[in-house]
Write a structure and sequence with these properties.
Helix content: 10-25%
Bound molecules: 2-OXO-4-methylpentanoic acid
Number of strands: 16
Number of domains: 2
CATH architecture of the largest domain: Alpha-Beta Barrel
Order of helices and strands: EEHEEEHHEEEHEEEHEHEEEHE
Strand content: 25-35%
Largest sheet: 8 strands, antiparallel
CATH topology of the largest domain: D-amino Acid Aminotransferase, Chain A, domain 2
Number of helices: 7
Length: about 350
């Protein structure tokens, strides 16, 4: 087992948490995991009190964005202990992103061990309310201080955790999404498949405009033809048309390989549902809606879990989906994914990494 020295906080902030108003990603647990990459290797693994990170103004990441991150969740399991949902899948994606950003990969076991030890130490921070969880945010960035475009030679890897409620204020109620024909998030051959800060920066302008117009998020189209559906930045997107579950394929080259996306596709196939990972144009979605064949639209993501879409707005026209109600597929997905996460349903696929406390 990885030997991790622990420096405990002198003053826990746990008592100041307002558990009934957690929001998402605004409260941080007492400790953080840290490792440094120097002289060609990762080392100096440690857990220390959550706090500021020293940096110089010339920190290369501030200027050139060499940073990657992950998002996963820990849950209080029904029969005791804690479940971390599919951390090896995140470890794999973290290293895929690392390669794309020229960041040295981290051993997958160390990645998973880092959060197991951190979550075990801060387990009192895991919310008790069903639907709430401890969001885990591993991330890495270049720590060289210089001005000039080259990959950093030193890096830091950190894990912080945050007790969270639902990502959208709507919770499991359907959200309104604006289909953006003007701005793009990523293009094939770019960084769209990496979980890197740049993709989120690229979505901010469009997202802010959409918020101002009363929408929760933007649905991005592909960056070349603006015909094909890509993703929603904070989540992947799924359509149910004629009882078939359809989602854009990873081969499209500009969307993130969502862990919840994969879980939903796996569940749907195991239930005998027709599933297609294929490119789908926004015109096909609109056409299916006009013909009454579009039964459901929902987003999938670690933060968002399953987020039903009640309205798509495209070129000034509003398309109301399933009477703005959550549909049966989205509901069954939400119940099953969260049921497995909280240890209420059998973990048939071996997705949870369980920690006994
Ligand atoms: C996640 O779903 O974990 C993400 O990283 C999305 C982010 C917008 C919170």
């Amino acid at each position: 087992m990885l030997q991790v020295p622990i420096t405990k906080t002198q003053v826990s902030r746990l008592d100041s948490v307002d558990w009934n108003n957690l929001g998402f990603g605004v409260v941080f647990s007492d400790h953080m995991f840290v490792a440094d990459y120097k002289n060609g290797g990762w080392g100096d693994f440690r857990i220390i009190p959550y706090g500021p990170v020293p940096m110089e103004p010339a920190l290369c990441t501030l200027h050139y964005g060499q940073s990657i991150f992950e998002g996963l969740k820990a849950f209080r399991a029904k029969n005791g202990g804690v479940n971390i949902f599919r951390p090896y899948k995140n470890a794999e994606r973290f290293n895929r992103s690392a390669r794309m950003l020229c960041i040295p990969p981290l051993d997958e076991e160390i990645f998973v061990e880092s959060m197991k030890q951190l979550v075990a130490l801060d387990h009192e921070w895991i919310p008790r309310q069903r639907g709430h969880s401890l969001y885990i945010r591993p991330f890495a960035f270049g720590t060289d201080s210089f001005l000039g475009v080259r990959a950093s030679r030193t890096y830091v890897f950190m894990v912080i955790t945050s007790p969270v409620a639902s990502y959208y204020a709507e919770g499991l109620n359907p959200v309104r999404i604006l289909v953006d024909c003007e701005h793009v998030r990523a293009v094939r051959g770019g960084l769209g498949t990496a979980k890197t800060a740049a993709n989120y920066a690229a979505s901010l302008y469009a997202g802010t405009k959409a918020h101002e117009a009363g929408f929760s998020q933007v649905l991005f189209l592909d960056g070349v033809t603006r015909e094909f559906v890509d993703e929603v930045g904070a989540m992947n997107i799924m359509f149910v048309i004629d009882d078939e579950l359809i989602t854009p394929p990873l081969e499209q080259g500009s969307i993130l390989a969502g862990v919840t996306r994969d879980s939903v596709l796996t569940l749907a196939r195991s239930w005998g549902m027709k599933v297609a990972e294929r490119s789908i144009t926004i015109d096909e979605v609109v056409d299916a809606h006009r013909k009454g064949r579009l039964q459901e639209v929902f987003g999938t993501g670690t933060a968002a879990v399953i987020s039903p879409v009640g309205e798509l707005s495209y070129k000034g026209e509003s398309f109301i989906i399933n009477d703005r109600k959550i549909g049966p597929v989205a509901q069954r997905m939400y119940d099953t994914v969260t049921g497995i996460q909280y240890g209420e349903l059998e973990d048939t696929f071996g997705w949870n990494v369980h920690i006994e406390l």
